[in-house]
Write a structure and sequence with these properties.
This protein starts with 7 loop residues before the first helix and ends with a helix. It is globular and about 70 Å long. 77% of the residues lie in helices and 0% in strands. It is mainly α and 313 residues long. The chain is built from 16 helices and no strands. The protein folds into 3 domains: 103 residues, Serine Threonine Protein Phosphatase 5, Tetratricopeptide repeat (Alpha Horseshoe); 75 residues, Serine Threonine Protein Phosphatase 5, Tetratricopeptide repeat, CATH 1.25.40.10; 85 residues.
Length: 313
């Protein structure tokens, strides 16, 4: 598993949602599932001031999801905390908001806050067991995944998948498959990991959504790279970069660029690698993503080492 993949945690946690594309889904949710996060944000900003408390809570939660996806965690926290504090709203919105807060603070490695919000989720989940949907079990799984309790993570992701299946929650099932792929990837069970990522890709193609596709493409590419199947690796890296470029997601594109750079350097190829790393580096600087900035610097060092060796020969 490559070091840069730690940067995927934010995307894979915050982009995981539950739902099924149906006629009753709002325009904003449909936009979100297509990764059109800016348009979805605009929609939910307007809708969040309309209707009764539960309608507002629904739209404020989704506004938080969109802001998190746009890498505006502080603004997302405001939305989630509003729901946690709000009285007389359906418990599902408090549970979902607590999950959003746990996800953000997990990325920030604030263990105490994560444990607090997860404990609050457990309290609500025990009080309202019927509200423990696929998202609920997946967020619990994410907590164990981030604390490297892989057996517990796997158990919860499987429970999330089973719940999604029983509730006919197609998008929730996709999210569960993605996280099962992640945990098996970590455990170096590549066959199982590839199986779940490919299932997630197939389901998204059938549903005509893009929500997790870039991350799936990049993870599949990395798995093939681990097997020295560079042809397949480049095929999937290219798919991810192409989709991120089409969607205008420079941040996601940067992940693909460092993936390709890493694969090229592992083959001893240095042509055009410096420009690929440089482009990714400039994007991560913009977002102040320190782990990925550090990885780009490591790649630059590896590039100079490989390039020096080539010149010597």
């Amino acid at each position: 598993m490559y070091k840069y993949q730690i940067c995927f945690i934010l995307n894979l946690i915050l982009f995981v949602t539950s739902g099924q594309l149906k006629a009753k889904d709002s325009i904003g949710e449909t936009l979100y599932y297509q990764r059109k996060f800016k348009d979805a944000t605009s929609y939910f900003r307007v809708e969040s001031i309309k209707g009764d408390k539960n309608n507002k809570a629904h739209n404020i939660f989704w506004l938080g999801q969109c802001l998190a996806a746009l890498r505006q965690p502080d603004s997302a926290i405001v939305a989630y905390e509003y729901l946690v504090a709000e009285k007389n709203i359906a418990p599902i919105w408090k549970i979902n908001a607590l999950g959003g807060l746990a996800s953000i603070y997990s990325y920030r490695q604030d263990t105490k806050k994560v444990e607090f919000y997860v404990s609050q989720m457990l309290l609500y989940g025990n009080q309202y067991p019927e509200k423990r949907d696929a998202r609920y079990w997946r967020i619990m799984g994410n907590f164990y995944f981030d604390t490297y309790k892989n057996d517990l993570a796997t158990t919860h992701f499987i429970r999330s998948a089973n719940t999604a299946e029983s509730q006919k929650d197609s998008i929730g099932l996709v999210g569960s498959y993605v996280m099962l792929g992640r945990v098996y990837e970590r455990l170096e069970k590549n066959i199982q990991a590839l199986h779940y990522f490919e299932l997630a890709i197939k389901m998204q193609d059938e549903l005509k959504i893009n929500l997790h596709l870039p991350q799936c493409y990049q993870s599949v590419a990395a798995l093939y790279e681990n097997q020295n199947n560079f042809k397949k690796a480049f095929e999937y890296y290219s798919k991810g970069i192409s989709l991120d470029t089409k969607l205008g997601d420079n941040y996601g594109r940067a992940y693909g660029l460092i993936g390709v750079s890493n694969a090229l350097l592992n083959q001893g190829k240095t042509k055009n690698v410096a420009s690929l790393i440089g482009e990714a580096y400039s994007i991560f600087i913009k977002y102040d993503d320190q782990p990925c900035i550090g990885y780009c610097l490591n790649l630059k060092g590896l590039y100079h080492q490989k390039n020096s060796n080539i010149k010597k020969h």
